[in-house]
Specification:
This protein is an alpha+beta fold. Helix content is 29%, strand content 29%. The chain has a two-stranded antiparallel ribbon with strand order 1-2. The longest helix is centred in the C-terminal third of the chain and has 12 residues. The termini are far apart.
């Protein structure tokens, strides 16, 4: 949506995700201090003749996505029978 509004030559995106479990000791950027964490590695392939500056800006915007922000903040799931 941002690239379209800016009239950038953005043709599409391919997103690859990989989920793994990592020990906190192996995660220098994690806030949690003990145990095992879920880690998602995300690779974004931006399709189109974009400049390095445009690609960097689109990556910044992806980091602000509501789904990304929710996952980064942690999730509390409560279940009940209906």
């Amino acid at each position: 949506m941002y690239a379209r509004r800016k009239n950038w030559p953005f043709q599409g995106i391919v997103v690859r995700l990989r989920h793994s479990k990592v020990y906190v000791d192996d995660c220098s950027s994690c806030d949690t201090k003990e145990g095992i964490l879920d880690q998602i590695d995300r690779e974004l392939e931006l399709v189109g003749p974009l400049s390095d500056e445009q690609r960097t800006k689109l990556l910044e915007i992806a980091e602000k996505c509501p789904v990304h922000r929710t996952l980064m903040s942690g999730i509390n799931i409560r279940s009940q029978l209906a």
